[in-house]
Amino acid sequence: MNSLYNSRQVILDIETTGMNKSGCLYLNHKIIEIGIIEIIDRKYTGKYLHYYLNPKRIVEEEAYKIHGISNKFLSDKPYFSDIYLNIINFIKKSEIIVHNSVFDISFLDYEFSKLNLNISKICEFSTITDTLFIARKLFPGKKNSLDALCSRYNIKNSRRNFHGALLDSWILFKLYLYMTSNQQEINFRSSSTKKILSPLNSKYNKNKPLKILLASVSEKKTHQKYINMINKNYI
To answer: Which residues are recorded as binding substrate (predicted)?
Structure first.
């Protein structure tokens, strides 16, 4: 990765009018929402970019069920051609973090190409990191959608009744920190961290005999009930 892009990263997500199930997935479709947040040295800076966009075409019913963004809501929003320079200036010379770049980056490149301004492909002025690829390496053979990853990392996403570009960018930011740091760079309160780590930092005295604690009768009964439940539900 080019060191020029290492310190500044942007987390990006989009919503669209739909996608083609065969052939070119973005052909004749449009972006209707884009959300991008800025992080420097793995910390959110407070800067972000967020637009709803008038696609000049109908939002497909299947897409509406996913993001809940209606044609009426978008009717007075700006066009992509009105704000494209803001997007380029926000993402250029940065590392773009995106979940499924085949979708998001392809749609953006397509929108830029439709302007007929000879704008370069995004990969030529920024680097792209696909968290879907990272997730598949970490969890091969498992479902790796944002919802599945939130469940896996115990990240609350109760507000996510619908997909939304800015909210999904924020969720992806949290997931990216977990997936790329093994929790080493996620900030916790120092006092709490010391309390958690203090037993691990104490030296183990190999000459001191270990104390063996036997389970009580009630604990054995509780354990057996748990085993019976597992057998009933999974065997």
So the answer is: 13, 15, 62, 67, 168
The angle at the Cα of 79, spanning 78 to 85, to the nearest 5 degrees, equals: 100
- Pick the catalytic residue from 50, 99, 163, 223: 163
Q: What is the DSSP string of 159-227?
A: T-SS--HHHHHHHHHHHHHHHHHTTSSS---HHHHHHHHHHHHSPP-TTSPPPP-PPPHHHHHHHHHHH
Q: Residues 6-47: pLDDT tens digits?
A: 589 999 999 999 999 999 999 999 999 999 999 999 999 999
Distance CA 113, CA 116 (A): 6
* 50 is an annotated ligand-binding site residue: no
Angle between helical axes of 80-91 and 101-114 (0-180°, round to 10): 120
Please say if 163 is a catalytic residue: yes
Residue 163, pLDDT score: 76
Helices (H) and strands (E) in the chain, counts: 9, 5
Question: Is residue 168 part of an annotated ligand binding site?
Answer: yes
Annotated binding residue at 67? Answer: yes
